[in-house]
Amino acid sequence: MKRFCLDLTLEELKEWCRAKSVQSFRAGQIYGWLSSGVTDTEGMTNVPKNVRAMLEEDFIFGEFKVLEKYVSAIDGTTKFVFRLHDGNIIETVVMRYKTGLSVCISSQAGCKMGCEFCASAKAGFGRSLTSGELLAQVLVSGKLMGERIRSIVVMGIGEPFDNYDNITGFIGLVTDPDGFGLGARHITISTCGLVPKIREFAALKSQVNLAVSLHAPNDEIRLKIMPVAKAYPMEELLAACHEYTSITGRRITYEYSLFAGVNDSVRCAEELAGKLKGELCHVNLIAANEFPGSAFRRSPSKSVAAFRKRLEELGINATLRREMGTDIMAACGQLRRGMEQS
């Protein structure tokens, strides 16, 4: 089976050149084009046609296509809908901050986690993305925007740690100083709480940021909205997170979407603060984003403010995430797999 062109490391391209009796310096040229977001051989203007033909024969090129582009009238957030070479569809979101462009990428075409409040869970599962398909979202989005991507959040469609090997491969590719060369501290991986993979990731001692989708102060509430809680109760999850901070010395961000009448009471804030007291962490509150067919409604702003205030009174650092792209269904929890839901 052919590999996608952006799955290739520089060393693999060098080996390919050796096997094909192609001059070794061509590997660097090809890798340079790929790292700049060129995913078709026609754009590789300094590579001979016969070498380009050999590349096309051995690898997948020109198949990372933009189906749709949506731009928010509110804040300029841009959502790209990409079709992969096998017909699977994913969504990628580019946001502008004072520090530059940030991209929210998908790790899978669909999601198996089944979180009740997330649109991605309602559209079925296709497959996990390769390391190169993760990278392509960064490179192609930046190329289309005409500007370098400055930070990455792996918080789009899918559960990153359900695609662990490709996630770690992607980190290697995107941080490669001979390639895109992004610093690891500018990358954030978000997981719904796959405990074994949190421990495995901790062992890497990576500088990549870790975010954990908590969304509840206890197992009773979490079980109602996140099926993963059946496999990994909160006590086990928080123990793994404690291990992570102990091993890496890095702070964890806990994502907490606030749903009206579900998890947004002051009592919930107090219970959450009790669970996180003394931990190296930060709570990122999200005024939950609604989508058609969802039974969940966002918390009133008054409840959000009271929840945050109580957390801070109890010594837990908390911020309210800035909403972006809500008018184009590009906000947290709104991404879908498939054009029919876009």
Helix and strand arrangement:
Layout: E1 3-4, H1 10-19, H2 25-35, H3 49-58, E2 59-60, E3 65-71, E4 78-83, E5 89-97, E6 100-104, E7 108-110, E8 125-128, H4 131-145, E9 149-154, H5 164-174, E10 187-191, H6 195-204, E11 209-213, H7 219-225, H8 228-231, H9 234-248, E12 252-258, H10 266-276, E13 281-287, H11 301-313, E14 318-320
Parallel strand pairs: 1-2, 6-9, 9-10, 10-11, 11-12, 12-13, 13-14
Antiparallel strand pairs: 3-4, 4-5, 5-6, 7-8
Could you please describe the fold and organization of this structure?
By secondary structure, this protein is of the alpha/beta class. The protein has two domains: 3-60, DNA polymerase, domain 1; 65-341, Aldolase class I (TIM Barrel, Alpha-Beta Barrel). Helices cover 34% and strands 21% of the residues. A ten-stranded mixed beta sheet has the order 3-4-5-6-9-10-11-12-13-14. Strands 1-2 form a two-stranded parallel sheet. It has a two-stranded antiparallel sheet with strand order 7-8. The longest helix has 15 residues, at 131-145. 44% of the residues are buried.
